[in-house]
Amino acid sequence: MYGKIHKCVKELVLSKFGQDAWNKVMIEANFDETKDFLMFKSYDDEKTFQLITAACKVSGLPLETVLEVFGQTWLKFCMDNGYEEMLRTLGGDFTSFVQNLDALHAHLSRTYTKLNYPSFRCETNNDGTLTLHYYSKRSGLYYIVLGVIPQIASVLYNQKATITVDSREEQDIENGILDDHVIFTVKLSKNDGNTTVNNKEDSSTIENNKELVCIRPTFPKQTIIQAKHFCNIFPYHLIFDENFVIKQCGSMIQILLKTKMERGSSLTSLFDLTYPRVDFTLTNLMAFINSAFLMTSVKKRNGHSLVLKGQMRWMPDISHMIFISSPCISSLQELKAMDLYISDIPLYDVTRELILLNQQRMAEMEIAKKLDETTADLTKMSKALEIEKNKTDELLHEMLPTKVATELLAGRTVDAEKFENVTILFSDIVTFTNIASACTPMDIVNLLNNLYQRFDNLTTVHNVYKVETIGDAYMVVSGVPTRTNSHAEDVANFSLDMVNEAGKVQSPATGESIQIRVGFHSGSVVAGVVGLKMPRYCLFGDTVNTSSRMESHGIPARVHASPQSAKLLIDKGYVFRDRGKNKIKGKGLMSTYILINRSGQTYEEPDDAFCKMPIAKTVDMDIEIEVLPDKTHEDKTNEDKTNEDKTNNEDKTNEDKTNELKERSKSQIQSPIIDKPVERPKSRSVIVTRPIPISRRQPPLQKQNSSTCMLS
């Protein structure tokens, strides 16, 4: 069946049960919206029944009811899809309409070449009812007739039709092929005068043409045309008697069959009755006298049978039947295959025009089919493109803050802004260089992935924004780009939880829990998007530098805070230990603090010397700036010597260095008191977990108001 059937089933389910039911039908039938609903594509009957069965299951209705409702929907579907004018002009009354359905199907089969259509025959009974005969090679579909016939009477002829099933039987028509033959009785109500087609001629028209109505044609007493000329003028006709003995035959039939017709030749030995699907008997021919007939030659020409389509007329005066026909050819390819030419068809026969017209229609049909397939492919590609677009949007939201990403996706520029109150946090892994030296790269990747997944989950919980990660360094900020008064609290809560989470991850080198250093600072920054091809959200300002110093001068498994951050938190229930004055690189002497707790929750402190430090009651905001004297010539010489010694030390073999690092990793003991900042190694393995670089440029010591750019 063609995709139009699938489309009609879809329309039925949507109109009767809604979109949710249709979605369930699609899943149940395992149908693809882009592949299984092409209007001009022929599908196997099994696939169509698969869709109808799914509709029955979802709707909870029996198959018979669904088929009947389908019949009611089918007429409207055809009229909405370009066939309304054709249907309204098919017959002047209901009976004529049904009698000409076969002709309509035969015409459509020229376009829909794989159309396997049913057959209808209508008889008028003495009581005014109609006997409708239905023939189909598909068994069990006669319920569709129960739905479509009343719709035809109502919509096209403004009549009410009551249809009932009288009998049903299966007939063996050819080589075991069964034909489902169902007989219906149709009862029509009287026309109310508002039909869409005129069943009676207008009285004024009859009056104006009264003279023409009274004229009766006259006929000659005998024919004046010889049989030879008649056979040439009508080259595709046959005259046979009650016993199917051929009495006269057109010239082209003899030429095409390469058979010289002589008296006594049997029609049934030369032709099979293809349509209507009944036995080739005179009784059946008389019963279907108002139908078009198809006869197929038994003998083939170039592998093709000659198919004649025409009309039967009974001549009672001589008890003979005449079959006036034309070759049933729908394309130039069929014409060529039968070794025929257009000139072999009489000029008066419209078959000539139909062949050429149908050739054009077939070309248009092929274009329409390709267009249908292309449209389906475009729909599929559009959905795939939408999925990829969503992935891109999600990636952009991962790279940039949600507020910034939304503005960029909307096509708007994001101007740089100054944020007066933000808190920035840095963290890194203690002895990461030793761990990296003692483990394989894959172990390091797994370590960082495990650790950073835990940290990423905490960013959502505490409403902080992850700026970037490079190697073992992790940076977050609160107050950017969405301003908040709780920026310090958010970062403080995050820092305590991340220290606890880090303790749950084991080092691949020693098997012991990972320790991290954490430091944060509060202040102002300038933030904005830099770049067009690969936009990055950047933070600028001394706050970034100071936050980095808090981390680098921090303590393993501890949270190191600047006085600015401690001042914002100490009155809000957060507990700090006073670390006292510390020499901060690039800053001088600064009072710093160790965050150990927050109100309502208790965190277990590491068992180290910092546990004995006093609890801070107030915050010292004073900073003693360190002024470095100018270097003398002797100092420069000593510095050069020191650099030379460092270079010589670096000339150790890789093997010695690796062994040394392994031993240090196993036996390293943390100093209880750290008076000096942690020195960064000159080089280390860097694993970028996000494609955003970071720059930590340390300002000269003699400049107090320096700024550092952190790119995300």
TrEMBL record:
GO terms for biological process: cGMP-mediated signaling; response to oxygen levels. One of its GO terms (molecular function) is heme binding. Residues 701-712 have a biased composition (Polar residues). Its EC number is 4.6.1.2. Residues 627-712 are annotated as: Disordered. Pfam families: Guanylate_cyc, HNOB, HNOBA. This is guanylate cyclase. It comes from Mytilus edulis. The lineage of its organism: Eukaryota, Metazoa, Spiralia, Lophotrochozoa, Mollusca.
